[in-house]
Amino acid sequence: MIALTGIVAVARWAFSKQGLTVIAVVAAISLLGWLLWRAYSAGTEHGAGTIVKQINRDNENAANSAEKGRDSYRRCVGAGRVYDYEHGTCHD
Questions:
Q1: What confidence score (pLDDT) does residue 1 get?
Q2: What is the C-alpha separation between 37 and 80, in angstroms, rounded?
Q3: Which is higher by pLDDT, 11 or 3?
Q4: Are 76 and 82 in contact (CB under 8 A)?
Q5: Cα torsion at 64, 69, 70, 72 (round to 10°)?
Q6: Are 69 and 88 in contact (CB under 8 A)?
Q7: What's the CA gap between 4 and 50, in Å, rounded?
Q8: d(Cα 59, Cα 2) in Å, to the nearest integer?
Q9: Is the distance from CB of 91 to CB of 81 less than 8 angstroms?
Q10: Which of 12, 67, 69, 83 is most buried by its number of CB atoms within 10 A?
Q11: Nearest alpha-carbon partner for 76 in 63, 89, 65
């Protein structure tokens, strides 16, 4: 009986003007927190995607540069010349 009386008292308070105000404020704060969290998550995902794209672009450029160097070396040695590693040039 005591538990039922407590539930009735809480229900009366919840539907009073003060109770509805408190519930509305808590709901608004919760919604604002959720919206801020979603905005933060979206920004983090976007930023991470941008960084990954930059890293992949840099890796591709490095691989292309290395391949050009290997090709230059192979052509030089294949022609019977001496490759200068310091300057990246081929000499007779």
A1: 54
A2: 64
A3: 11
A4: yes
A5: 120
A6: yes
A7: 57
A8: 71
A9: yes
A10: 83
A11: 89
